[in-house]
């Protein structure tokens, strides 16, 4: 199929047009997510147009990293061509595969760098079926009109519950006791095993996960302090501290819930371990770059840190198998030899509940973007949506024009649209990129073609799509 970005309508017959035009809006979609996400903010129109979308079979979708069945089903039900792989791909294979797809769905492992995205000539949208979007070059994507969606909090509870479990496991050395029993050793000890009641939990990054964790920890009798770059409302009796150092000096358990950013790289390193209380515990289920692992190994060997739980690593394997060795991370064997260290394979968000909720949420956002052009919930483009076209508007078309945010563009666009009846129009910008949607009524296929060509010829153009 010809590029969905290169949407060139032809007038000879409907089927041929369908090949070049994106789909009609289907207003029946609303996010089934129970969390009231941005997607649920649009009110469904009662007499919305439920057309069989044109040419959805031409939309090619590549899903990597074992995206949940619920999400796959939604995309297949649209008639899209869906290719599904359980693991991520090495860069050369990814580049081959990404060349002709319109939609790609990934999780935390797949790196969509500018180098990879440069090859993705047909790509219109990326779905991160997870929370983190650090694996995608968001700026490059925006500048090339590629929308990026994620699921901002569908797995937050799963991560918070895992951390609660780990706090108790570390305090009671449960991992070691269990391993010993598996090896046939009875080792009944109470030395340096603690209750968590009355202990202080220090949360670094008090966002969706940190805040959820705060409530759970307090309900088990812990005192909670947190450090965040933002001034945030403390839940329950939690208390915000002014500096990371203050948190490290006070907390018995420290847990990291910050995104991967240049500022959070190596945020917990040798200096920070020195500032911690003797015998404290560290948990990292955020990103592998946040904790300096060789420094952690030293701090555990010296006894400064009494236990740790790691769910994320600087280098993670592409799929399941026997990979957690020194080839992957040079300190792998040293890490594995430590006592009271829980190592998990990036499973913070890996629960049935989280994965199916994410599948539905992100697949729905992708479908709405492909079919209707709605960017509600996009992480790299301005959020723009128009109410759905209705059954009373059979010959309406929706213009989506992504353009450089420079002076004079709207005047030129409106000169082009001005010959038609513009029913509704909305535009917004984010940084260097602006997103315009306009519904125009009573347009013929020939006019759509002309509109498309005129918009494409503007120097401000990043991407034009015409949906009907
Ligand atoms: N292990 C796993 O499976 C999972 C890991 N994650 C990771 O957890 C991270 C956090 O997730 P959420 O709580 O949903 O994110 P969030 O965006 O809701 O919260 C992050 C918080 O960190 C704060 N922050 C940013 N930079 C900071 C800094 N330098 N110092 C202190 N605070 C800083 C922000 O202000 C914000 O309050 C995600 O970005 C993702 O990388 C998320 C889900 C699952
Ligand atoms: O949601 C996130 O950011 C996570 O880290 C979970 O990633 P995953 O979907 O398990 O690859």
Automatic annotation (TrEMBL):
Its EC number is 1.1.1.399, 1.1.1.95. GO terms for molecular function: 2-oxoglutarate reductase activity; NAD binding; phosphoglycerate dehydrogenase activity. CDD domains: PGDH_3. The keyword Phosphoprotein applies. Pathway: Amino-acid biosynthesis; L-serine biosynthesis; L-serine from 3-phospho-D-glycerate: step 1/3. Coiled coil: none annotated. The keyword Oxidoreductase applies. It catalyses: (2R)-3-phosphoglycerate + NAD(+) = 3-phosphooxypyruvate + NADH + H(+); (R)-2-hydroxyglutarate + NAD(+) = 2-oxoglutarate + NADH + H(+). Residues 398-468 form the ACT domain. GO terms for biological process: L-serine biosynthetic process. Catalyzes the reversible oxidation of 3-phospho-D-glycerate to 3-phosphonooxypyruvate, the first step of the phosphorylated L-serine biosynthesis pathway. Also catalyzes the reversible oxidation of 2-hydroxyglutarate to 2-oxoglutarate. Belongs to the D-isomer specific 2-hydroxyacid dehydrogenase family. PANTHER family: D-ISOMER SPECIFIC 2-HYDROXYACID DEHYDROGENASE FAMILY PROTEIN (AFU_ORTHOLOGUE AFUA_6G10090). This is 2-oxoglutarate reductase.
């Amino acid at each position: 199929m010809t590029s969905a970005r290169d949407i060139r309508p032809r007038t000879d017959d409907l089927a041929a047009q369908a090949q070049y035009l994106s789909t009609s809006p289907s207003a029946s979609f609303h996010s089934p997510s129970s969390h009231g996400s941005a997607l649920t903010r649009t009110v469904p129109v009662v007499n919305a147009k439920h057309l069989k979308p044109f040419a959805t079979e031409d939309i090619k979708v590549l899903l990597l990293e074992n995206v949940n069945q619920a999400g796959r089903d939604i995309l297949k039900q649209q008639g899209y061509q869906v290719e599904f792989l359980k693991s991520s791909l090495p860069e050369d294979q990814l580049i081959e595969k990404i060349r002709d797809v319109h939609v790609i769905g990934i999780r935390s492992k797949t790196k969509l760098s500018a180098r990879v995205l440069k090859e993705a000539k047909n790509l219109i949208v990326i779905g991160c079926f997870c929370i983190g979007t650090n694996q995608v070059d968001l700026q490059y994507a925006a500048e090339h009109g590629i929308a990026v969606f994620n699921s901002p909090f569908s797995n937050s509870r799963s991560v918070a519950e895992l951390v609660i479990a780990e706090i108790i496991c570390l305090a009671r050395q449960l991992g070691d006791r269990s391993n010993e029993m598996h090896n046939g050793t009875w080792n009944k000890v109470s030395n340096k095993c603690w209750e968590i009641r009355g202990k202080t939990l220090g949360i670094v990054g008090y966002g969706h996960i940190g805040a959820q964790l705060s409530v759970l920890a307090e309900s088990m009798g812990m005192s909670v302090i947190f450090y965040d770059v933002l001034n945030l409302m403390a839940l329950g009796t939690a208390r915000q501290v002014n500096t990371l150092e203050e948190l490290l000096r006070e907390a018995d358990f420290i847990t990291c819930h910050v995104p991967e950013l240049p500022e959070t790289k190596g945020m917990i390193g040798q200096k920070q371990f020195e500032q911690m209380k003797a015998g404290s515990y560290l948990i990292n289920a955020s990103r592998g770059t946040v904790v300096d692992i060789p420094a952690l190994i030293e701090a555990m060997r010296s006894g400064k840190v009494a236990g740790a739980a790691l769910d994320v690593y600087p280098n993670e394997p592409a799929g399941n198998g026997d990979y957690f060795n020194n080839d992957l991370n040079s300190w792998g064997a040293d890490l594995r030899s430590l006592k009271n260290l829980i190592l998990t394979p990036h499973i913070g968000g890996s629960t049935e509940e989280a994965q199916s909720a994410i599948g539905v949420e992100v697949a729905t956002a992708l479908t709405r973007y492909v079919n209707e052009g709605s960017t509600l919930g996009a992480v790299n483009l301005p959020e723009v949506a128009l109410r759905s076209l209705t059954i009373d508007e059979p010959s309406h078309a929706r213009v989506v024009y992504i353009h450089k945010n420079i002076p004079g563009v709207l005047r030129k666009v409106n000169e082009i649209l001005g010959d038609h009846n513009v029913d509704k129009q909305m535009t917004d910008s984010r940084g260097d990129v602006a997103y315009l949607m306009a519904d125009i009524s009573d347009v013929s296929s020939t006019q759509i073609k002309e509109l498309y060509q005129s918009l494409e010829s503007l120097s401000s153009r990043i991407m034009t799509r015409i949906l009907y």
